[in-house]
Amino acid sequence: MPGRYYSKFIPPSLSMSELVCQKLDNDATDLLIDKWLERPHRPDAYYDWFQRVRERRHHATTNARNQQRLLWNKGVFVPENIFIRTVDTGRLIPLDRTWVTHVYHHKSMSRLNMMPVIFSMLPELMLLRGMHDRGCDDIYVIVTDLKRQEMDQVTEYFQYTATMSLRYLTAKLAQQIDEELMSAAGAFSLDQLMELAGLACAQTLAKVYHKDKYPRVLVCCGPGNQGGDGLVAARHLGMFGYQPTIWMPKRLKTQCDNMKIQTLAPSDDTHSLSDALARSDVILDAIFGFSFKPPVRAPFETALPLISSSGLPIISVDIPSGWDVEHGNAEGVGLNPDVLISLTAPKEGVRQFTGRHFLGGRFVPKSMEEKFALNLPDYPGFDQIVELPQTKGTNGAQRL
Ligand SMILES: NC(=O)C1=CN([C@@H]2O[C@H](COP(=O)(O)OP(=O)(O)OC[C@H]3O[C@@H](n4cnc5c(N)ncnc54)[C@H](O)[C@@H]3O)[C@@H](O)[C@H]2O)[C@H](O)CC1
Ligand SMILES: [K+]
């Protein structure tokens, strides 16, 4: 992993490591298991359970079901050098952190007292075994070739994320922070904030959708400040070499006109939107932000389904339009974007968002970050955006 970037909010993942995956045959697996069983221990429920796991494995392979595999690379096979991978993400997790984050939560382990073996590998393997019982017979054990110092860094990452996590904002808190940014505590003007927010949106789009393949960006702007973010983003996208078109049923903005960015005539019908969708490669959804209150009103109640049915990739600003700021897409009327760029801090409603998730709004003073316990991630280098880990929806077990 040397030289590869990860931080407290960008977890180390399989793609960052140079694993040599190896599939063990049954004899080799047995040898390894026997070696573990030789480790000093008192025979207990874990020992029995692991024996049963072994038997089941033999039974499974005899019946030509999925093979059990241990995967590792050339690293030295010692507990300090071992990560496991969770079944539902592609993350690598050091064993000691796994104990905290997963063992306690696994139903099948609840009847056992786990404390005596907290530092042992065995329950981890059983845990994995138990987790995989539902879907497959593989045990994924990944031995890395990380140096001690790198292991410490990764462990530090997990310790950090176990104790701190990014705060998700309610609508009220988002509004309060917004106001505070424009009070003496932040001393920003609305235009300044919007400029930085719009730049972050444009950077996110450019990072995910390259201009050679997705030159025609349809920027859909709503009636509030988020619509302003969209206009700023359109201007930056124009500067970056994209060909933005603005759909903004409520008002016009001179800067974009000056740049000859095509703006569809404001209108409450959605014909112009339908036409524009047919001529676009990607959509920037800057319709509703944290002041949205359902249900969706005209003309957006027609516009959102039109946008969804276009099949074009969508990047949403702050919250996918149509989602309740705190309860998400419970009503099912909102857009389902591929990418989300949250501003300042993610909103409660997007906890379940499974696409690529970026954070922008690199303008929050440290004092405000601490006051509101936002636990913001570090922005890399001079970027206006930082990508957050995807919350769920990827199955690491299938990705290796
Ligand atoms: N600090 C920051 O993070 C900054 C974020 N910015 C962006 O501003 C929006 C919030 O702006 P606001 O003007 O408060 O609200 P909206 O953009 O969400 O728009 C409200 C707008 O929409 C209308 N509306 C509300 N509900 C409905 C509905 N059901 N149907 C139709 N229309 C509806 C309402 O009447 C208003 O006109 C935030 O999300 C960020 O994107 C700032 O740019 C900079 C600081
Ligand atoms: K939005």
From TrEMBL:
Pfam families cross-referenced by the UniProt entry: YjeF_N
Catalytic activity field: (6R)-NADHX = (6S)-NADHX; (6R)-NADPHX = (6S)-NADPHX
GO MF annotation terms: metal ion binding; NAD(P)HX epimerase activity; nucleotide binding
Keyword Nucleotidyltransferase among record annotations: no
Cofactor(s) in the UniProt record: K(+)
Keyword field contains Isomerase: yes
Record-listed (6S)-NADPHX binding positions: 225-229, 289-295, 318
Localization: Cytoplasm; Mitochondrion
Entry's EC annotation: 5.1.99.6
The YjeF N-terminal domain, residue ranges: 174-376
Gene Ontology CC: one annotated term: mitochondrion
Comment on bound cofactor: Binds 1 potassium ion per subunit.
InterPro entries according to UniProt: YjeF_N_dom, YjeF_N_dom_sf, YJEFN_prot_NAXE-like
Matches recorded under SUPFAM superfamilies: YjeF N-terminal domain-like
Keywords: Cytoplasm, Isomerase, Metal-binding, Mitochondrion, NAD, NADP, Nucleotide-binding, Potassium
Broad enzyme group: isomerase
Function: Catalyzes the epimerization of the S- and R-forms of NAD(P)HX, a damaged form of NAD(P)H that is a result of enzymatic or heat-dependent hydration. This is a prerequisite for the S-specific NAD(P)H-hydrate dehydratase to allow the repair of both epimers of NAD(P)HX.
Family annotation (HAMAP family): NADHX_epimerase
Protein name, UniProt field: NAD(P)H-hydrate epimerase
Biological source species: Fibroporia radiculosa
